[in-house]
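Need tokens for this chain, all 444 residues.
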Amino acid sequence: MTNAVVCVDVGSTYTKAAAVDADTGDLLGTASHPTTLATDVMEGLRAAAEAAVPKAANVVDTLVCSSAGGGLRLAVIGNEPLVTARAAYRAGLSAGARVVDVRAGRLADADFAALADARPDVILLAGGTDGGDDTAVRDHAAALAASGIRTPVVYAGNADAFAAAAADLDAAGIAVTGVANVLPRIGALNPVPARTALREVFLRHVIAGKHLSASADFTRMVKAATPDAVLTGVELLADRIADDLLVVDVGGATTDVYSVLTPDAEREGPRAEVAGTAWRSRTVEGDLGVRHTAVGIAEAADDEDLPTSAALEEAAGLRTANPAFRADDPGPDAELSALAARIAVRRHARGEQIGGPTEPLRGGKDLAAVGLVIGSGGVLRRDPAAAAWLREAVGADTSGGVRPPKDARFAVDADYRLAPAGLLAANGYRHAAEGLLGAWSTSR
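Here are the structure tokens for all 444 residues:
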């Protein structure tokens, strides 16, 4: 009898399940079910899992990732917007978080009021290089302790200041986890310890706190935020193909872009950014979802001078007003998804803006050498023509001020393999994860 690991992604709209051979990584079956947020997410989870597993398989493990209930909402506090706050921001994105607020510099009461209004699940506190000035990060910790906010904190700042900062936070009843500095020295970005800690805090505090299920089984089975699982799968695939990789995941609420690029020796040298360069990174565009934020796609297209139509704007409004809408005509969904993919990749390649609208974009990426582009998301999986329009939207986009992939293969994650591969790789089934990704594991 075949031993199967069931990998389940509990999303805000759909719960997707994949049954994978625990030894070979062969995909045994897939299924989806509407996420049962109104009752208990375990209902939809069990339904999807049972439908995905063949009768002849023996389930040896169930691994779950989740973005239901909004996923992981993160706020960042750093010393300067273009240095430690930027480094922490990049680390947060790599952990699968949606960064809902960034604060830097001298903070006033209004800053903490805005931070509270953003409703973060976790706060990532950074500041100062190791051995450098620790005044700002200590002041931020003390002010946060006095603010009345009781959100869990991951401390990834100056190592010498941790004891004093933790004492203030502990005394205020704020759970704090300390990890290695996200920016131990200028230009040296170190996101992995913060990413690991944010994952653990997400599992310990966030999943239980969202009350998505009355069953303790759900909390036990959830291993990661969904974007974190996807990024792990993307990183594993990039290592397997030994090539630069770009993944565009068009969802109902956001469009996420993942890239794994070969480090540029010039940008690692004297011209390196002070906040470091994230060669394995993710960006999330909260205004580019094909349901909850569909009107944002039309608005962003106008900003990018991309053509739209009154009919498309009407379709976007309908989807935003009714996220559960199921279209008989796939055309508008494909058009909205193509626009979302094009705009999201442009933003990913241009870089990030932290510190206000007048600040420059930083962390831009040259995508010309990308060898494989993979599209993901429900609309793409259901559309046989998705790889073609993704190639047009991303590969032929020469008017966006960025260098698009020049000679890449284009594919769609039609069988839903990336998130399950990430779950498998991170939980003791690396060989199975590699087998699951085998269809893409050939370089150009």
